[in-house]
């Protein structure tokens, strides 16, 4: 399935457009996956970084009280940190801190996938372009185009992390488990 989804994104003339269409179709099914381990297995085994970005973006948009119209960028990922609530409905009695832990896990996964799509590897940095255009861009050694929202400061990050911590403290009313603290440090 993951290979087929990856090919479906790649064969289109606009991988960005096809990943949006595929993500829109898959998203309702992800909402209905009952176990965190199953959701994580699906997202972690996804071969298309671009499709993973789109799915995670939809998940976070779904969890925001006030969705944003920003294009996917580092600023939008920080927006999700500040405005997202617990992502998915749970049918079991999962502890509140585990829900926040899952949210931070997916936010880190979104950040890593976004970096892979835009910045990281020479062959992957043009994932939003078609295969033909991508080869030309690689041969020309063209730099990837960053979004306006990719220019964020360390102060922006620090303020959003502090805001998130205070919001989480209000909800949990207890000390953070070690997993939460580690994920916040990793994300930062």
Features:
globular, ElonginBC-PRC2_ViralRestrict, SUMO polymer binding, about 190 residues, mainly alpha
Describe this structure in words.
Mean pLDDT is 79; it is low at 120-126. 65% of the residues lie in helices and 0% in strands. The protein has one domain (1-187). The protein contains 9 helices and no strands. It has 188 residues and is an all-alpha fold. The two termini are 33 Å apart. GO terms for molecular function: SUMO polymer binding. This is SIMC1 protein.
Helix content: 55-70%
**Shape, principal axes of CA atoms:** globular
Q: Rg from C-alpha positions?
A: 17 Å
Structural class: mainly alpha
Largest sheet geometry: none
Distance from first to last alpha carbon? 33 Å
Number of strands: 0
Number of helices: 9
Q: What's the structural domain tally?
A: 1
The H/E string reads HHHHHHHHH
Task: Summarize model confidence as the mean pLDDT.
Answer: 79
pLDDT < 50 stretches: 120-126
Q: Indicate the proportion of strand residues.
A: under 5%
């Amino acid at each position: 399935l993951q290979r087929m989804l990856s090919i479906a994104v790649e064969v289109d003339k606009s991988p960005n457009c096809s990943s949006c269409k595929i993500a829109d179709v898959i998203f309702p099914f992800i909402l209905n996956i009952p176990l965190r381990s199953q959701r994580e297995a699906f997202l972690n085994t996804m071969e298309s970084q671009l499709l993973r970005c789109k799915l995670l973006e939809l998940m976070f948009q779904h969890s925001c009280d006030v969705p944003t119209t920003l294009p996917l960028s580092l600023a939008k990922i920080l927006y999700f940190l500040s405005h997202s609530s617990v992502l998915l409905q749970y049918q079991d009695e999962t502890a509140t801190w585990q829900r926040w832990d899952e949210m931070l896990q997916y936010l880190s996964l979104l950040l890593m996938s976004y970096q892979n799509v835009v910045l990281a590897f020479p062959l992957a940095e043009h994932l939003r372009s078609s295969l033909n255009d991508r080869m030309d861009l690689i041969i020309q050694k063209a730099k990837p185009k960053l979004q306006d929202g990719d220019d964020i400061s360390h102060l922006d990050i620090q303020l959003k992390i502090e805001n998130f911590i205070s919001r989480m403290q209000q909800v949990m009313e207890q000390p953070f488990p070690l997993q939460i603290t580690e994920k916040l440090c990793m994300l930062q």
